[in-house]
Amino acid sequence: MPVETAESEADPASTPEGDPVPDNGLRTSGMRDLGPDEMRRFRRVERAFLETAEARGYLEVRTPTIEPLHLYTAAGTLSPQLLDRVYSFLDWDGWSGERVVLRPDATVAVARWLTEHGLEGPQRLAYVQPVYRFVPGDGDREQWQCGVELFGVPAPEGDSELLLLARDLLAALGLEGLRCELAHAGLARVIFAAAGLDAVEQLEAYDRMLEGDAGIVDRLVEARPESASALRLLSDVDGNAAGYLANLRAALLPDLPAAEAPLADLEAVARTLDAAGLPYRVLPGTARNFEYYSGVTFRMFAGAEECLAGGRYDGLTETIGGTSAPASGFGADLLRLARLVPAGGAR
Amino acid sequence: MTRPIRVALPRGDLREPLAEQLRAAGFVAEGYGEGSRSYRFDVEDRPTVQVRVFSDADIPIQVALGQYDLGIASRTWTDELLVRYRHESIVPLRSLDLGSERLVVAGAPGTSIERLAAGGAVQVSTEYPNLAHHYLNRLRVPDYRLYDVWAQAEAWPPDDAELAIAAASAVEREGLEVLGDVHRGGVWLIGNRDALAERDLREALEPLLMLPRGDGESGLVVPPAIGGLRRAPSRATSERECFRIAVPDGHAQRHTVAALASAGIAFDGYEEGRTMRRPLSDLDGVEVKVMRPQDMPRAVALGRFDLAVTGRDWLEVHRTAFPAAPVVELCDLARSKYRLGAVVSEDLPVESIREAVAYWRRDDPSRPIRLASEYASLADDYARGRHLGRYRVIPISGASEGFVPEDAEILIEGAETGTTLRANRLRMIDVIMESTNCAIGAAERPVGRRGELRDEFVERLRAAALAAG
Predict the structure, then answer these.
(1) How far from the centroid of its chain's Cα atoms is residue B345's Cα?
(2) What is the pTM (predicted TM-score) of this model?
């Protein structure tokens, strides 16, 4: 899944202790070495991640570093903005006009693997592999992602399974103070569509909402005054209990009956989190690359540190030429996790 | 000594109107407007300013590299660079009142991009691959193939590509239908970010900022996305029945007409001094098309032509970049002979490229060697093969003799007699290959009548070349 939130904060190439490595022209910008200390942390996190995932039935796959560009150009895979940052080039067969990319995202590649193998029914997969995207300056352009994909299990069961797995993975790494932020891409879509926004305007509005731009909510309220209370409830109140979702339901459904299914998804997930004792907040949105997601999206934190992000993207396999399948997953920046893990933390 | 303020100005159609405006603004590069063959000019009463003339397409690259502080270039070429390398160090400073064409997407009359996109991979020819990617990605075309051609992208549709992204007037001349705007054009004054941040450029900047401002729209077009499209399996293509030949225009046309004539082959509309896009052949089932020789190896590899007449240099350029491309030389036409090699300054006190590299690095062992060339893949191959160490290939599209020694150490260039090189105080220090024109075809001989026709054409061309000695 496109891990978007952590990379903008990626540290410049650094030693395990965080000291910047001077640029003497021998290393390509944005590429970094991992020394023995960092590799030891890396392997510890990788091992804990894969073992915990495997214990829940998530088996490891690995996809090629180079993929065809067209795998990522269809709507619902990577946004045009992300496509502007991929490493694309003409390889030895480039005379055909077909460009290739260094894998910019792991989920699409894993979905391609699943589609090509014609696998049906529930499939639980895990991966640890780098993705490549341009980042200005000396920020990490090679990012090691660890993540899981769950195909064939619809909402809300699949969402609940993933959230509990995410909690267990972070706990296995010794991380404490876990909490979750939830949103639903479908809910945002219902609201945007009711306000008369087309697909492109919805993308823009979603990004602005994520950036905390209050003006976008004012615009929506103006376009659809009858939904003002629901919009205010969604944007101005950070709900953190089932009661909040009940209030949202009361405010939203009379005007927008299409919000029923997204709200039911969120309520089911909230029940799971309540039962697991994991604190959460419900937000208007949590993940960039809006057009990719179809259902619940989430971010998980240890204290103030974001650890992983994910969500549901039921349209993906069909978009890349396969048959329709429910799909969801999450991913994390492995090196970021390695920095967060306390000494001797990973079990 | 302080480095001069370097300004890059375009040659070609922009030159005359721009020179007039520059003169009015008090920036007089004597000889620039008259089309002098010089590449470098002093500027009247501005002793710290130097002007160099480039092909329009090369100016943004030179300013981005910091080799030139300021430049005037069409916005399409600037955005072709910026849209992919958005953190490049170019700052667009001012839109100028100089005409420049808009870039459009076009296809055969009645074409619909939506319909094409719904039916599989869309084939698009263009000289602007980065702008094309930007446009097609925002249009959300699920699958496409880009043919980034050397020139005349508009000549490819409808038979050799479905769409072209090219200048509006060019696609209209070819009878194509404009389906949308890709770039609004414009000519801009641009500057190097670091130079603007650190150096006092007033002596050039003040008059250049007085040039009349352009008030028309310019820049990228962001098209509305086509909704609801998914990747579709590629269209099935049926086996082509007609035998297709590609012949070159430009400098190579005269030699090709002569080579064909000596083999007893003539096409109506392809003579010296007369060119139609699709000349006619007397033979049934034979189609002829005129295109740029640089693009022929790719067109043959794609299976668009059974036979094409091009230079061995262009075949080599293609095979260096794409060794697996299924295109081969069928016969040598033994005309248009010249050498291709590494060209350096005549004043360099060395006898070999190895000595030259040692000379350039005498003070700084890690200094990158700059190779400028229209043959970028050959230049890259040469640099690797000669173990140049740290090097940079600067792709250029013309005005090549002006690059060495100031803007590149090495020029990878062709020379027929060496007269032009000598006139520019250059010499070829290392020969990479000898090139003549040749007929090329698919690595696998076509079956049936197309195969027979190929054998017949090749035999006649080969016999004529042998007879001519």
Answers:
(1) 24
(2) 0.87
